[in-house]
Amino acid sequence: xxxxxxxxxxxxxxxxxxxxxxxxxxxxxxxxxxxxxxxxxxxxxxxxxxxxxxxxxxxxxxxxxxxxxxxxxxxxxxxxxxxxxxxxxxxxxxxxxxxxxxxxxxxxxxxxxxxxxxxxxxxxxxxxxxxxxxxxxxxxxxxxxxxxxxxxxxxxxxxxxxxxxxxxxxxxxxxxxxxxxxxxxxxxxxxxxxxxxxxxxxxxxxxxxxxxxxxxxxxxxxxxxxxxxxxxxxxxxxxxx
Length: 241
Description:
The chain has helices at residues 21-31, 51-61, 82-85, 113-131, 150-153, 156-169, 184-193, 213-221; strands spanning 6-10, 34-41, 67-73, 92-94, 97-98, 101-102, 135-136, 172-176, 197-200. It is of the alpha/beta class.
């Protein structure tokens, strides 16, 4: 069965993306695909780090035929209120750092691998209890210096613990086209356990928006159908005033 795709993970100029909201909506319209904007929410100058910045963002996104979301930085403090976050059509959570150490800094050395993996899962568990997010972004994405060893480090025990959290908290696992995680084995084990999935480009540039080639290919190879995919409850209007 052919999947009906929706790109639920894109970033705009409201955080660290270079694509405007107008461009995201236009690209999705041309592709005939539903799209969600999920700008970063956490501490830092490029992020939605206050209720006032969130308010301006939410009002702007609401003027376009796109889903309204944010990507919570699960390894850090979130300074936007839960009341405001509940206004989103869905919430994404992603682990980008732990203990103030950025996963995208290639100079960071991580020697305590078991501690790192425990920390990632603990951050997911803690923030899921607080914010009840709907999608876990790029599950299994490790710090930059460890990504070449990702498939070896994320073993069956990791899968069992990740799947257990997804079932306990009810969040979907994103199949990320940008980061090409999780693996096919993880997807098959999660699907067999009853976990749902979301497709995401994690687009930061116009040419990445709605490019779900890897996500769709892997989902099809793992036998996923539309029934396995998370869908936001709100119906998108063709035009929003």
